[in-house]
């Protein structure tokens, strides 16, 4: 699959980039995409929620009324969850929500996500660019030139680029990552995936294993 390479002004450079069919043109496995996104979101959960249970409530341990003859249900402790101020019954406890997925499934999910975006013509290949210093205005101008300033976009760099990353931090609609940080969740979240030309080799080598 060949796509045009754009410059920083959104103009066609006249060159074509070859997108591997093994990564960008497979039959998408939607269930794999679902599982990988589910795992990503599960790993974001802190799992620190906690409610006090009956044993953790401060209160008297005296039996609050006699066992029989009251005409109501028997009760032994004011700390019971059936009373106001008592412990929470079956309340949340700290836990880890994460779960494991094998590497081959995660690779399949990322390839499926990229193939879905490629099929929708939502992948843009752009030549390498840089800023001399962090420049938010310059970064926004790049997005405007690509007509993605009003959409959620994902920019995939070939390697770490501090100036481009810092330029993007104040612009909430765009996410800048390296090819090694590519995730199914971020691909699916974006309306447009902008792949820097130098990132193609890293993406294809990571996902063709």
From TrEMBL:
<feature type="region of interest" description="Disordered">
    <location>
        <begin position="45"/>
        <end position="77"/>
    </location>
</feature>
<comment type="function">
    <text>Forms part of the polypeptide exit tunnel.</text>
</comment>
<dbReference type="InterPro" id="IPR013005">
    <property type="entry name" value="Ribosomal_uL4-like"/>
</dbReference>
<dbReference type="InterPro" id="IPR023574">
    <property type="entry name" value="Ribosomal_uL4_dom_sf"/>
</dbReference>
<dbReference type="GO" id="GO:0005840">
    <property type="term" value="C:ribosome"/>
</dbReference>
<dbReference type="InterPro" id="IPR002136">
    <property type="entry name" value="Ribosomal_uL4"/>
</dbReference>
<keyword id="KW-0687">Ribonucleoprotein</keyword>
<dbReference type="GO" id="GO:0006412">
    <property type="term" value="P:translation"/>
</dbReference>
<dbReference type="GO" id="GO:1990904">
    <property type="term" value="C:ribonucleoprotein complex"/>
</dbReference>
<keyword id="KW-0694">RNA-binding</keyword>
<dbReference type="Pfam" id="PF00573">
    <property type="entry name" value="Ribosomal_L4"/>
</dbReference>
<dbReference type="GO" id="GO:0019843">
    <property type="term" value="F:rRNA binding"/>
</dbReference>
<comment type="subunit">
    <text>Part of the 50S ribosomal subunit.</text>
</comment>
<keyword id="KW-0699">rRNA-binding</keyword>
<comment type="similarity">
    <text>Belongs to the universal ribosomal protein uL4 family.</text>
</comment>
<protein>
    <recommendedName>
        <fullName>Large ribosomal subunit protein uL4</fullName>
    </recommendedName>
</protein>
<dbReference type="GO" id="GO:0003735">
    <property type="term" value="F:structural constituent of ribosome"/>
</dbReference>
<keyword id="KW-0689">Ribosomal protein</keyword>
<comment type="function">
    <text>One of the primary rRNA binding proteins, this protein initially binds near the 5'-end of the 23S rRNA. It is important during the early stages of 50S assembly. It makes multiple contacts with different domains of the 23S rRNA in the assembled 50S subunit and ribosome.</text>
</comment>
């Amino acid at each position: 699959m060949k796509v045009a390479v754009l410059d920083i002004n959104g103009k066609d450079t006249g060159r074509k980039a070859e997108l591997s069919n093994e990564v960008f043109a497979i039959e998408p496995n939607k269930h794999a995409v679902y599982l990988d996104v589910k795992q990503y979101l599960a790993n974001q959960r802190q799992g620190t929620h906690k409610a006090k249970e009956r044993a953790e409530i401060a209160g008297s341990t005296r039996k609050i009324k006699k066992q029989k003859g009251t005409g109501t249900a028997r009760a032994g402790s004011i700390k019971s969850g059936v009373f106001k101020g008592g412990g929470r019954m079956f309340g949340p406890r700290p836990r880890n929500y994460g779960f494991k997925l094998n590497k081959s499934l995660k690779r399949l999910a990322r390839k499926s996500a990229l193939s879905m975006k490629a099929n929708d013509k939502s992948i843009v290949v752009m030549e390498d660019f840089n800023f001399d210093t962090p420049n938010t205005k310059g970064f926004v101008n790049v997005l405007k030139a690509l007509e993605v300033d009003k959409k959620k976009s994902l920019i995939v760099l070939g390697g770490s680029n501090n100036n481009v990353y810092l330029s993007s931090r104040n612009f909430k609609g765009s996410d800048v990552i390296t090819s090694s940080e590519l995730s199914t969740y971020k691909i699916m979240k974006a309306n447009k995936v902008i792949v820097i030309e130098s990132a193609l080799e890293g993406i294809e080598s990571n996902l063709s294993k």
